[in-house]
Specification:
Shape: globular
CATH class: Alpha Beta
Bound molecules: nicotinamide-adenine-dinucleotide
Order of helices and strands: EHEHEHEHEHHEHHE
Low-confidence stretches: none
């Protein structure tokens, strides 16, 4: 595996207990970073910490859609650390349904976790990055946010919002040594797929010219470069990892 130099860096990875987030955490640890994984699921956090068994891995039980919880956790972390890297990865797809049949509570929670959660984490951490004149933020959006998936309007809207947030914040921070980028993955086999109907997942796969699911390590490799000092110019940008599905 190609390694990036993340020595003396501290990273916060939301939704880090499993799936993409945990794999990113493992790559960051092997690249020398200290890592805080945040997740709402304490059981999975404990399982992940035990499995990884690395003293540079820390965890916090945080609901990213709760601003007070996010801010308190950031305040605790910065007592002894600076935060150099933020990966906004926590997300849910919600169920598969047409917009007019979408449950309002489900809609709100999809927007709250994917979009407002990203806003809350950036709002709490960016002032510390500005103070240090250094930061790398990677927001995990989705190909759904670019293309708009039928029967996934809440998720597509939330991820399109994450793309817009990335472009705005990246420009606001461009005068500092802080990069803000988004990634738009196609489907990968993680637990999130269980939230959607089997037919919808098959439809997603049928749209990918590569003809297969994205591998989790393919995603985390891209995140590593974007999170490293080597990414010294790209910002406010959207990096595609959709196996040829997106045409822009
Ligand atoms: N797997 C895919 O096919 C795919 C494709 C495109 C984009 N994505 C995006 O990638 C990101 C990671 O997804 P994944 O596939 O690893 O899914 P996953 O379900 O394996 O992991 C998501 C993690 O986020 C956590 N989480 C959910 N709500 C939270 C909250 N309110 N606060 C804190 N943590 C919370 C979950 O507990 C879980 O551990 C998500 O943003 C998802 O939308 C995934």
């Amino acid at each position: 595996m190609h390694q990036f130099d993340l020595k003396n860096k501290t990273a916060v990875i939301t939704g880090g207990a499993q799936g993409f987030g945990l794999d990113i955490a493992k790559k960051f640890l092997s690249s020398g970073s200290k890592v805080f994984i945040w997740d709402i699921d304490e059981k999975e956090l404990l399982k992940a910490t035990k499995e990884v068994n690395n003293s540079n891995l820390n965890y916090n039980v945080v609901d990213v859609s709760n601003f007070e919880q996010v801010q308190k956790t950031v305040n605790d972390i910065i007592l002894k650390n600076k935060i150099d890297i933020l990966i906004n990865n926590a997300g849910i797809t919600g169920p598969t349904a047409e917009l007019w049949n979408y449950n309002i509570k489900e809609w709100n929670s999809i927007i709250n976790i994917n979009l407002h959660g990203t806003f809350y984490c950036c709002k709490s951490i960016v002032p510390h990055m500005i103070k240090n004149n250094y930061g790398r933020i990677v927001n995990i959006a989705s190909v759904a946010g670019k293309d708009g998936n039928a029967n996934a309007s809440a998720y597509s809207s939330a991820k399109a919002g994450v793309i817009g947030l990335t472009k705005s914040l990246g420009k606001e921070l461009a005068k500092y040594n802080i990069a803000v980028n988004a990634i738009t993955p196609a489907g990968a086999k993680t637990k999130i797929l269980d939230q959607m109907s089997k037919e919808h997942v098959q439809w997603m796969l049928s749209k990918v010219p590569r003809g297969r699911f994205l591998e989790i390590n393919e995603l985390s490799s891209m995140v590593c470069w974007l999170s490293s000092e080597e990414n010294s110019f790209s910002t406010a940008a959207v990096f595609d990892i959709s196996g040829g599905r997106s045409t822009y």
